[in-house]
């Protein structure tokens, strides 16, 4: 499909400054993130790679403003993140669609919360559904859609707020391999159109190298940055690029970093 350009707020610069986050009940707090320093320029697509349970989702929650820092913090365009904001949209692995609402009303929900009139918000929701290839499914309910289609609706619902930072927490992890690759290709098309800043969490090395401009590798908990590198493959990327010897070499390096002791 061809993705039409989207009117978009300018992408944001994200900066982590000695970010330390603790999780758990008050009497059993443990460090999930340990003094992370990271700069993400506006419009860059960064993949965060790490073993399961290392704190990748906690990192996204801190950037989104859902979790407070113990020390340090997160700045978006030099403004400290203190609470959630629609400028920082987040897509989870499992969709969060309202099962009792039709697809178009799920997508339009963010604009409803902003007080936008019904006709205007449904018109914009339809445009976003067209963008993700689901223009003909506006009147369906989420349960009538496949997993991949539900995630497309989820992405459209986040994009309708025109986020300056798009946070993605293993959004394709529950999909079969074929659908996952199709969704990866769709995401790259959307990003080429909107050019928002993307921070995409995954534990899949192939996915990180296929999608990202840059890959940040985290250690086991408490998470520290053990590698941070530009992905050395030109865009646009294709399935064939993952079969190149250079791709295998970089993947091998990633595996080594992931297996290093803390």
Give a verbal description of the structure.
- By secondary structure, the protein is α/β, with parallel strands linked by helices.
- It folds into two domains: 187 residues, Rossmann fold (3-Layer(aba) Sandwich); 64 residues, no CATH class.
- It contains seven helices and ten strands.
- α5 links the parallel β7 and β8.
- The termini are far apart.
- The N terminus is likely disordered.
Spans of at least 5 consecutive residues with low confidence: 1-7
Rg on CA atoms, Å: 18 Å
Mean pLDDT: 90
Compute the number of structural domains: 2
Strand content: 15-25%
Query: Based on the structure given, which CATH architecture of the largest domain is correct?
Result: 3-Layer(aba) Sandwich
Count the strands? 10
Question: Which CATH class of the largest domain is shown?
Answer: Alpha Beta
Task: Provide a concise account of the structure shown.
This protein folds into 2 domains: 1-87 and 163-262, Rossmann fold (3-Layer(aba) Sandwich), CATH 3.40.50; 99-162, no CATH class.
Q: Secondary-structure blueprint of this entry?
A:
Elements: E1 14-23, E2 30-40, E3 45-49, H1 56-64, E4 71-76, E5 79-80, E6 88-91, H2 103-113, H3 118-131, H4 147-159, E7 165-169, H5 177-194, E8 197-202, H6 205-211, E9 214-218, E10 225-230, H7 245-259
Parallel strand pairs: 3-8, 3-9, 6-7, 7-8
Antiparallel strand pairs: 1-2, 1-4, 4-5, 9-10
Helix pairs in contact: 2-3, 2-4, 3-4
Main attributes?
262 residues, Rossmann fold, disordered N terminus, 2 domains, 23% strand, alpha/beta, globular, 6-stranded mixed β-sheet
């Amino acid at each position: 499909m061809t993705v039409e350009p989207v009117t978009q707020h300018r992408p944001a610069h994200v900066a982590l400054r000695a970010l330390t986050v603790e999780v758990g009940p008050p009497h059993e707090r443990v460090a999930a993130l340990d003094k992370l320093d990271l700069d993400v320029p506006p419009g860059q697509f960064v993949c965060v790679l790490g073993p399961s349970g290392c704190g990748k989702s906690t990192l996204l929650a801190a950037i989104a403003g859902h979790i407070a820092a113990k020390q340090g913090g997160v700045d978006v365009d030099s403004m400290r993140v203190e609470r959630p904001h629609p400028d920082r949209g987040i897509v989870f692995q499992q969709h969060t669609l309202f099962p009792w609402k039709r697809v178009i009303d799920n997508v339009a929900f963010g604009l409803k919360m902003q007080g936008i009139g019904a006709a205007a918000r449904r018109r914009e929701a339809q445009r976003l559904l067209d963008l993700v290839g689901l223009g003909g499914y506006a009147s369906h309910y989420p349960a009538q859609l496949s997993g991949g289609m539900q995630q497309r609706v989820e992405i459209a619902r986040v994009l309708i707020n025109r986020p300056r930072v798009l946070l993605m927490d293993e959004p394709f992890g529950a999909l079969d391999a074929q659908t996952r690759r199709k969704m990866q290709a769709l995401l790259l098309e959307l990003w080429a159109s909107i050019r928002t800043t993307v921070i995409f969490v995954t534990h899949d090395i192939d996915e990180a190298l296929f999608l990202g401009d840059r890959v940040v590798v985290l250690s086991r908990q408490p998470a520290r940055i053990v590698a941070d590198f530009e992905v050395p493959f030109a865009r646009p990327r294709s399935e064939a690029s993952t079969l190149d010897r250079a791709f295998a070499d970089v993947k091998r390096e990633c595996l080594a970093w992931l297996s290093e002791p803390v």
